[in-house]
Specification:
Blueprint lengths: L12 E19 L2 E15 L4 E6 L9 H17 L5 H12 L3 H18 L4 H4 L15
Antiparallel strand pairs: 1-2, 2-3
Helix pairs in contact: 1-2, 1-3, 2-3
Amino acid sequence: MSDESGAGHVAPVVDTAFERRSLPIDGSFTIARGTTETAENVLVRVTDEADRVGLGCSAPSAYYGETADTVAAVLPEYLDVVESVGPEPRATVERRCRERVGDNPAARAAVAIALADLAGKRLDAPLYDLWGLDPANAPPTSFTV
């Protein structure tokens, strides 16, 4: 989306940060590959010049060759790209991140979600509105989604 409202653009980002979060799972989660009792996630924050904060989170899966360690290792590169661009379309920022760092979908997703969240906050609109979605029509999901 790249309309006059700026929803498809990144407000100039003046600060970025990330932190690892180990989240306990209520009980445990068991699938064929094993049992998990905590979810290792990485939370990303992007802050614009008006002090609005966009949040995104990665939930890396070792099954796909990613861990909280691999995400934390590449996020400084991604966030450097985010801080170095002006109000460009999010797609351009995401492309530049891919070109600079390469394949790291969990880290890229966290940054993309944080930038989308920031765009929603700039417009005082929830992301589902920006994306033309109706929460009442959301499909049921399982724990593994």
